Amino acid sequence: MLSDELLSKFWALTKTDMRLETYKIVAACSFSFKQPHLSFIFDQVSVHTPLEKLDMEDFNCLSELGKYSQDREKGF
User: Fold this and answer.
1) Most buried one in 11, 24, 26, 75, CB count within 10 A?
2) Which residues of 15-39 are buried (b: 16+ CB within 10 A; e: fewer)?
3) Are 11 and 41 contacting, i.e. CB atoms less than 8 angstroms apart?
């Protein structure tokens, strides 16, 4: 079980030099995430990252998350 606290700690790795590895793990695990996990990561990338700072890794991460989201109405 992936708690919100643990997911937040994991996601904090994106603010370190482990960023690319974190995105690779997200991509590999996207299929296994439940909708709240997908939404949390989606929000972290799309809401908490300024548009001018988004890069290819961010877009790839969002793309992987979108494949498995059941929350299409919210603009996923």
Assistant:
1) 26
2) eeeeeeebbeebbeebeebeeebbb
3) yes
Q: What is the pLDDT of residues 10-51, one digit of tens each?
A: 999 999 999 999 999 998 888 888 889 988 998 898 888 888
Residues whose CB is less than 8 angstroms from the CB of residue 45 and which lie 6 or more positions away in sequence, other chains included = 54, 58, 61, 62
Tokens 């370190």 sit at which residue? 16
DSSP string, 8-34: HHHHGGGGTTTHHHHHHHHHHHGGG--
Letter for the amino acid at 48? H
Q: What is the pTM for the complete model shown?
A: 0.76
